[in-house]
């Protein structure tokens, strides 16, 4: 390897990346990482104001970015998101499925409405977004999909069974997509964060947060920025031989 090829490993210059749930928490940290690596970034979330604010922030970092208000539960919104990305930047190279809702309902008290809402956003949305973007991913010489799952996909998940099962299903789709898309040169992987210091995490009772921290070897929450390295590895040329797998970034808690 020479200096030029080394420097290209994590370089995302001239690549267009869609990041759902990209206006705060892990999604915004990933969007910042992609912009700083040279990518053009399309951030999507439900709130138009948050989208515009995030896009302005990313442009302030010196990158090209737009915000597109998108409800992951609305399939029409997903097609509009893809179209806007293509109109704005000419194609799509990477899709990062980060948006999720963490509806918590104990077994025995589940509502059909919560079940439907959770699966529409956490599973159907990511799968149909990839499907909408597929023609553009096929046309890219550097195509990658990153599905953000959770250690909940592998662990016991009392009260969070709807969320955890959706993430486990997205992990299964990750493997199937990797196998189906490999002839088109599209790599598909997942990243499973453990407990991260985000708005979603702070909505939990302190006791639950303490229990999650206690379940890690490092005995602390991650910062959202600590997910950027793994995400860049899985979506850049540095990960060119990695597909159909998951990186667990959980401070040492899941495999025992």
From TrEMBL:
Concerning SMART domains, the annotation shows:
PKS_KR
* Gene3D superfamilies in the cross-refs: NAD(P)-binding Rossmann-like Domain
For this protein, the record's CDD domains field holds: SDR_c
Q: Name one Pfam family in it.
A: adh_short_C2
UniProt lists the family membership as follows:
Belongs to the short-chain dehydrogenases/reductases (SDR) family.
From what organism does this protein derive? Mycobacterium deserti
Which NCBIfam families does this one have?
Answer: PRK07231.1
Q: Which PANTHER family match?
A: DEHYDROGENASE/REDUCTASE (SDR FAMILY) MEMBER 4, DEHYDROGENASE_REDUCTASE 4
What name has this protein been given in UniProt? SDR family oxidoreductase
- Residue ranges constituting the Ketoreductase domain according to the UniProt record: 15-194
Q: Which InterPro entries match?
A: KR_dom (IPR057326), NAD(P)-bd_dom_sf (IPR036291), Sc_DH/Rdtase_CS (IPR020904), SDR_fam (IPR002347)
Q: Which SUPFAM superfamilies match?
A: NAD(P)-binding Rossmann-fold domains (SSF51735)
